[in-house]
Structure formats: structure tokens, C-alpha cells
Amino acid sequence: MRLLVIGDVVGGVGLTAILQSLPVLREEHAPDLTIVNAENAANGTGTSPRQARDLLDAGVDVLTGGNHTFRRRELYPLLSSEPRVIRPHNLAIRGPGSGLAVVPLDAERNAAVINLLGAIFMDAAMSPFAVVDELVERARERATYVFVDLHAEATSEKMAMGRYLDGRVTAVFGTHTHVQTADERVLDGGTAYISDLGMTGPHDSVIGVASEIILNRFLTGAPGRFEVAEGDVRVQGAVIDADERGRATAIRRIDLPLEG
Length: 260
Known about the structure:
Purple Acid Phosphatase, chain A, domain 2, 6 helices, 27% strand
């Protein structure tokens, strides 16, 4: 099977970019499953219900989240009612939604998606390592292919999770930093890994925010309202191939610039 996974969608600019690019990406890569991290779609913080519906209607199979997921209270009913919209399982002990989705690929095969939040420099309710074993066990009971989105700041935490789950899941990919890493590989046990998928949105920016706002904050210490930038829009992510046993065979980065 083949997975298409897209890194953090930032603002309306990023949302428009992925919606416009999905037909092209599908034609080129023919994925069996598409996962999108929509953590920053709503003006940089969270996801609105309309945006989630737009992505699902466009053929995205699972939406993952991150540290801003609960910032949009209007999303709570969808988190509770739509199993394809998930949030980091360890974001809160109690709260709407789940960190595990299982979706059918065909009559005989399922894929599972696990969403976790890093504990280093993040406000996780508990370490992702404290909950991941149970989630993987539940996922493997129902699915041949298991994919883990670890939304985390520290590359060491992401790498450690990749090593910890090597041989037990199909892939571990990092999100959150908005900077695509060049360390994609298939680990010895057959798990594909990349520290960060990157950002779908404006790259003429500082991780998606207008550069002058961030520069002013660093230079003067004065707070400023973040505004999503507009230039050099790119779609970033990865394509992951796996065999019939659920072991990854290849991982390739995607960095697609959009014209205009």
C-alpha cells in the first residue's frame, strides 16, 4: 500500500494549497490512504469545522492535530462525532475526541492512524511513551498498517519514538516545527521514519508567520499579533510504501511549490 501524508497546513493559504494540489498528488502517487495534519489551518491555530469538512470532502482519509487542537472550541462536536478527525491522545486526560483512527483500505485491509503530542517543550498531559504501547496494541488488533503522527518540538523525542516503535508500526513521522527534515529512512525493523514532514503554506515567512512580525518580536521583545504570510507557497509531506505485512519499503519527501 501507499500512504500520502501532508505536513502542517498553515492558514487559509495552506488550506487552499492542499485542496488545489490533492488531485495532482493523487494522480502522481496513487495513494491508498491520505493523512493531513491540519493543526494550524485556522489562521495558524487549530482547525475550524468547515476546514475539516472541506478536507474530508476532498478525499482526505484522516485529519491529525497538535497542541492547538483544543483552541477551537467549535471543533469539539466534530472531534466527538467524526472518527476520521483525531487529536493527540495525550493532549488531555479528558476531552473530546480520540488519538486513534481506523479506516478501511478495501474489503480485507485496514489502516490505523495514531496521533501523539511530544512532552518536551509542550503541554502534554503525559509522556507519549506512557500511552503509545496501548494505542499500538489496539491499532494492530484491527489494522495491518499503523501510522504514527508525533506532533513534537524535540527531534530527539521523535527519533526515540521511531526507534522505540521500529518493527511494530509502518511509519513514524514528526510534525509541528514547520521545517522539513532530510533524515527520511526505513529503519532496520521495517518502520519508515522522518523527523518532520514540513509545512504546507507560505515559506516566504518565519514558519508561516509574516517575517516582519517575528523579527520585531525578536528585536524589540514587543508582542505582536501573528498574521499568516503569503509568499512561496509549498505543499510538503511524504509518500510511504509498505508491503503486505505492514512493513515499510520506501519513504520519499514531497516539496511541491505552487505557482502564483
